[in-house]
């Protein structure tokens, strides 16, 4: 995996520089002499890191000619939105001072280039919990459409499954692309009208790529407006191609 960071920053008349840490990989920016409270770095950094690193840490220091460099604060940036969107345009992140207060901002632009994996992913669709019941006079008949990159598979329909269907089905996907997540769309089968969408769940894959196995856990099911509409329980297994 790789990320490119474009930096601007705000940190009194000082000589600021940044230490960037993402997993085990670290980079140091150049020092802006007399940069004061509005230094401009305009630098890019490339990180080659393992799957699933959750955050980027940027620590700001004032370079001292005599004595120890002084900490000016730190910002910690969650990377989950970056993994999902592949790019984040220049965004302001607050800098937390050593005393815990916040002062100043750093501006970063982020890009993500996923690693291409090759192997087989097995997804265990266990059950749904508190799903939307779309039928007025009867229990819904839920099923799932599971999408992994360009591959789509359909679960069986659980007749009268209602809000808590139990599928207990496994699905196999061939992985040979920059896939980072699986999309699960849940529907209620209708006989005379179009099937109703019950919601969508996104299952990130970085953990199973790193560890090989993720036991069944709950993932939120969201409606069209992002509102919570229950949960779906999913387990994952990944076997890399040798």
From TrEMBL:
**Does the entry feature the keyword Ribonucleoprotein, yes or no?**
no
Residue ranges constituting the C2 domain according to the UniProt record: 1-92, 102-218
Show the InterPro entries listed in the entry. C2_dom, C2_domain_sf
Quote the protein name from its UniProt record. C2 domain-containing protein
Keyword vocabulary terms for this entry: Calcium, Metal-binding
**GO molecular function terms attached to this record:** metal ion binding
